[in-house]
Amino acid sequence: QVQLVESGGGLVQAGGSLRLSCVVSGSIFRINAMGWYRQSPGKQREQVAAIMFGGSSNYADSVKGRFTISRDNAENTVYLQMNSLKPEDTAVYYCNAVLKVRSYGTARDYWGQGTQVTVSS
After folding, report:
1. How does DSSP assign 3-54, residue by residue?
2. What distance in Å separates the CA atoms of residue 102 and residue 35, rounded to the nearest whole number?
3. Is 39 exposed, middle or buried (0-12, 13-18, 19+ CB in 10 A)?
4. At 77, is the secondary structure helix, strand, or coil?
C-alpha cells in the first residue's frame, strides 16, 4: 500500500508564509514526479507546482516567484514553501506522486488526503 501524508497547512495572514510537507511511504519502486495541487470551493483542482526525479520543476503562473517546490529523494518527501501568501491562495492543497510500485508496468498517480491553507486578508 502506498500512502501520502501531508502536513503544514493552517491559517496565515496575507503576506505570510507556510511550508507544506508530504511523505510518501509504502512499497515503492520509483517516484517519477511529485507535486502539489489545490482546489478551492467551486473551482477545479489545479496544479500548483511539480518536480521531477531529476530535480526540474514547473509552477503555475499564479505562484511563480512566491512558491518553491523541493524534494528529498532519499526520504520520499516533497515540500512546498509558500511565501507572500494571498487570500486567493486559500484552498485545500493535495500532494501528488507519480510512481511505480514495481520495476515493470506503468507509473500511476497517488494522492494525499489534502491539507487546508487559509489566507486571511
Report:
1. EEEEE--EEEETT--EEEEEEEEES-SEEEEEEEEEE-TTS--EEEEEEETT
2. 21
3. middle
4. strand
State the residue for C-alpha cell 507572500. Answer: 84
Model confidence over 51-90: pLDDT tens digits?
998 889 999 999 999 999 999 989 999 999 999 999 999 9
Distances (CA, A) of 40 to 12, 62, 96: 16, 14, 17
For residues 111 and 120, give the distance between their C-alpha atoms in angstroms, rounded to a whole number.
27
β-partners of residue 119 are 12
**Interval 35-39 mean pLDDT:** 98
